[in-house]
Specification:
Elements: H1 3-12, E1 19-24, E2 30-36, H2 39-47, H3 54-60, E3 65-70, H4 74-88, E4 97-98, E5 104-108, E6 117-119, E7 128-131, H5 140-151, H6 158-163, H7 169-172, H8 186-201, H9 205-222, H10 226-248, E8 260-267, E9 271-280, E10 283-293, H11 299-317, E11 323-325, H12 330-344, E12 349-350, H13 357-377, H14 381-391, E13 400-409, E14 412-422, E15 425-426, E16 432-435, H15 445-458, E17 465-469, H16 472-484, E18 491-502, E19 509-518, E20 526-527, H17 532-567, H18 574-583, H19 588-591, H20 596-603, H21 607-617
Helix pairs in contact: 1-2, 4-11, 4-12, 5-10, 9-10, 11-12, 14-17, 15-16, 17-18, 20-21
């Protein structure tokens, strides 16, 4: 029985209830997570003969099994889908690329004397108050510094605060009350913090604050404390400048203290952009932009996924406004609203309104222009990936690329690197280094490439394309290993070719190098200079692979030399050498300057062995 027919029969036996489904490939890896109001009907569409979008066709060609999870309703399935995507990072689920993380202000009331913290990754937990986001132009660091000084709040880290025994210089400058060492009132301290919160939360509180500072300034002036009066004057100027910036960003929405996100979508040929107008306390404070690869045939297909995309966006931000303006149908609005309520325990109004028509139109135009400007001014990653797709006759864009390089010198300490780029950006969590076997025949690149790929395949989670630093021989080795494992993934090689040219008007030759792509089945290599975007991407990956493989190679070479040197020391056996190499993080000659007792404790070796090392590297002490 064909796999597709078998999966269809399994799908038709599913219950007609809400839930999530997890599609798996031949290696058992989860490659897609989806949700459904009726599991039976939704999952069956993947395997029946109905017309499918390009994205779905590509996904189905890799599915070999699926699992499912039941939920009570559609809202639960949306929340569960979001959690599963974050847990498994499936290849065919959308990867959001957020172009900006806005700053926040954070006050951690779990500490006795909290400070004002400037952060781009706020902590969402009990007794931690977070304000924002704020745009860069508001000079948030400056206003935080001003408020901290005026209220004499703590400004040091918790570690410094707990370990300090004497007041720091800020106390001497009258910019901190030194709660670290002085018995100051916690209640009064928290009253000042409350004023800071009101400053950011209440529209006109700054007037009350300015009046209070002004009174103190006049009193200082009357008392002939002119330096203090000048500092208070500057404080007022900083606050008024901050407020002036806010006024220039003001948006009249007819109701005070509204927090609203307005999402405008532009459905481009290669990418989809979502521009979000951020409105906090009824003020337009900035714009956020998300971009993702367009793997959809039409906007309607993308719109079906939009609630999931937005839920993922907000769960990442760990915050949610009171209202979300976005183009969805009524059922999607209800499902998204209820899902956000489940996560954030606050009611969120979702849907369009004539009140925000103008801003919604502006956000859509912003999304379109963001994509156009990025496409015109960026390194052209989508042009590069589209060129690869065309050269290799692929059905879909190759998003996940892996590049390999072997580092070897005179047959010693051979290493290899695996670097991974996703959508044109390095994914360093998936970088790998390989220590390779030392072979009697010395530099055997082909055997080493075979060893690397054979080991790589066993770990699963394979890419869309393999890139190997080398020519036809290395590419052939990769293809042979993949064929033996029944894996159908394209392989290309990158190699330099020397070009000898006759210099014009001179009796001499010029030797140049040209980067070329070795593509199986293609008669001649592809000259990378013909596609500047692809050239930049492939060469960048090859250079990164070089750097990463040589990093381990040099480390092993250094370790080998140290091993050889330590083995010469009388009384130092193989086990002691192994213990030392495991913990060695600086030149052994430097560590040998330590007392024998310290050296013994650091490496976990005998005192006599430590003394032997010191005597060997520091003979002048004998």
């Amino acid at each position: 029985m064909k796999i597709k027919q078998k999966l269809l029969e399994k799908a038709q036996s599913l219950p007609s209830t809400p839930g999530c489904y997890l599609m798996k490939n031949a290696h058992g890896e989860i490659i897609y997570v989806g949700k459904a109001k009726k599991l039976k009907a939704r999952v069956s569409t993947y395997f029946n003969n109905s017309k499918k979008f390009i994205k779905t066709q590509a996904l189905v060609s890799h599915i070999r099994e699926f699992d499912f999870l039941l939920t009570s309703n559609e809202v639960e399935s949306l929340v569960l889908e979001n959690n599963l995507i974050k847990e498994h990072s499936p290849k065919y689920n959308i990867r959001l690329k957020d172009d900006k993380t806005y700053p926040y202000i954070q006050i951690n009331y779990n500490e006795k004397f909290p400070r004002l913290e400037y952060t781009r990754k706020p902590k969402r937990k009990k007794n931690v108050h977070v304000f924002g986001p704020f745009p860069e132009s508001f000079q948030m660091k400056k206003i935080l510094q001003t408020l901290t000084k005026f209220f004499k709040l703590r400004d040091c880290s918790l570690h410094d605060f707990n370990s300090r025994k004497n007041p720091c210089m800020l106390f001497d400058m009258h910019q901190c009350g030194a709660p670290c060492v002085l018995d100051i009132s916690s209640d009064l301290y928290h009253e000042d913090l409350k004023k800071v919160e009101n400053f950011f939360m209440q529209k006109n509180f700054y007037k009350t604050l300015v009046q209070e500072i002004n009174e103190k300034m006049l009193w200082a002036s009357k008392s002939e404390e002119f330096e203090k009066a000048a500092i208070l004057r500057d404080t007022i100027q900083d606050i008024e400048k901050y407020q002036e910036n806010i006024k220039t960003q003001k948006v009249e929405l007819g109701k005070a203290q509204q927090n609203i996100d307005i999402h405008g979508v532009y459905f481009g040929q290669d990418e989809i952009d979502i521009s979000t107008y951020l409105i906090r306390n009824s003020l337009l404070i900035g714009i956020n932009n998300i971009s993702l690869i367009n793997s959809y045939s039409q906007f309607k297909e993308f719109q079906e996924d939009l609630p999931s995309i937005l839920l993922s966006y907000y769960s990442d931000k760990k915050e949610c406004p009171q209202r979300i303006v976005v183009e969805l149908d009524s059922n999607q609005e209800d499902v998204l609203s209820q899902s956000l309520l489940t996560i954030f325990e606050q009611k969120v109004q979702v849907g369009q309104s004539k009140q925000f028509e103008n801003l919604f139109s502006m956000s859509k135009k912003h999304a379109e222009n963001s994509q156009r400007m990025r496409y015109e001014n960026s390194d052209g990653i989508f042009k590069a990936l589209n060129k690869l797709k065309s050269l290799l006759n692929l059905d879909e864009l190759p998003r996940v690329l892996e590049c390999y390089d072997v580092a070897i010198f005179q047959g010693s300490s051979p290493t290899a690197s695996q670097i991974v780029f996703i959508d044109g950006k390095p994914e360093k969590s998936r970088y790998r280094q390989y220590k390779l076997q030392v072979r009697n025949e010395g530099n055997n690149d082909f055997a080493m490439m075979q060893e690397v790929l054979s080991r790589r395949i066993k770990s699963g989670n394979l890419p869309d394309l393999f890139i190997v630093d080398g020519g036809k021989g290395q590419v052939s080795v990769f293809l042979e290993v993949l064929k033996e494992s029944n894996i159908d993934i394209p392989v290309i090689g990158i190699a330099k070719a020397k070009i000898v040219q006759q210099a014009r008007f001179q009796d001499k030759e010029i030797v140049k190098t040209d980067e070329r792509l070795i593509i199986p089945g293609r008669l001649n290599p592809f000259i990378l200079s013909k596609s500047p975007e692809l050239f930049r991407q492939i060469v960048k990956m090859r250079n990164e692979a070089h750097r990463f493989s040589r990093k381990l190679h040099h480390k092993l070479e250094e370790s080998s030399l140290i091993h050889s040197e330590l083995s010469k020391i009388p009384g130092i056996g193989p086990k002691t050498v192994k213990k030392i190499l495991r913990k060695l993080n600086s030149p052994i000659e430097e560590l040998a300057k330590l007392p024998a007792k310290d050296l013994s404790l650091f490496f976990g070796i005998r005192l006599s062995s430590a003394q032997s090392i010191i005597d060997y590297f520091q003979p002048q002490k004998n």
